[in-house]
Amino acid sequence: xxxxxxxxxxxxxxxxxxxxxxxxxxxxxxxxxxxxxxxxxxxxxxxxxxxxxxxxxxxxxxxxxxxxxxxxxxxxxxxxxxxxxxxxxxxxxxxxxxxxxxxxxxxxxxxxxxxxxxxxxxxxxxxxxxxxxxxxxxxxxxxxxxxxxxxxxxxxxxxxxxxxxxxxxxxxxxxxxxxxxxxxxxxxxxxxxxxxxxxxxxxxxxxxxxxxxxxxxxxxxxxxxxxxxxxxxxxxxxxxxxxxxxxxxxxxxxxxxxxxxxxxxxxxxxxxxxxxxxxxxxxxxxxxxxxxxxxxxxxxxxxxxxxxxxxxxxxxxxxxxxxxxxxxxxxxxxxxxxxxxxxxxxxxxxxxxxxxxxxxxxxxxxxxxxxxxxxxxxxxxxxxx
Length: 385
Description:
This protein has 385 residues and is mostly beta strands. It has helices spanning 2-20, 42-46, 60-63, 277-283, 292-297; strands at residues 75-83, 93-104, 107-121, 125-139, 144-156, 162-181, 184-198, 215-225, 230-241, 248-249, 267-269, 300-309, 313-321, 330-340, 343-352, 364-371.
């Protein structure tokens, strides 16, 4: 009897601790259509899953569309494939197609498509999600650019529940190659990207709408040209979801949340998450139940490096950090890339160092990047007369 009482007392204390939501307790932020935050391409993922302030390629549509105007080519296309969470469900795949076309000297059009599919469930329904993007980037001067993007989002869940919404991105990018480290040419880069600014999404038969993955990404990077054959880049990104943090709810003597007459639960600390998308974005900096310290814990950090040899072989590495109370994803990444004429083939590999997200371990990505105006087709010789 004493043992049973001790077990019940321990269980009650645990429930109360969760209700108090102390700073050490798990308090993750959940959103609808989370596939929007899956990093798509192998080059960026080889550097710790970052890209706000790296040198530009066609995958800038995801990381920072303002970089598109700095691509050296008039048109480019990239295709990426990721077998996602294979330890959880072997049928999950993520496909990403991204491209750009320079319209004028200072204007570039970008487009992309993301497709998430989880195959059949109970031989009847499949889970799939799709996002179609269109971006317009503009070079303001020799160092600064900005971009706006529009996005259509569609999601179909296992139970046949469907939902759709629209979103927009705004982004900016700064680059300056007028610096030197000793006698080494150095490029400095800064980037900011706010993605998925849009209405909530409500799936069929749901009574409530959910926030989508609105995200703020800030980045800083530098690339040092060690010599004509050797380049070395270092990059850091910081991310924060602009979505309400779950509050701490009041509980009764049995540890159950207290339901109010209006159908909402009584809040002990934090703010009511049932608010508009705009209020959720602006309030996301000050709504954590444990104040500023918890807000800092919501910042996700990614750091990485890229070494290039003779602009042919690229070796990459990175580290991704998420606080233990906000998901606990912490892993190393590595990658390799080959550039030949108009083509870039990239591969990345993820090595998990925490057991809380085991489905991510050993995730790999493959990307093929093509710069069309670099393709040189041999002309057939004119027939002899």
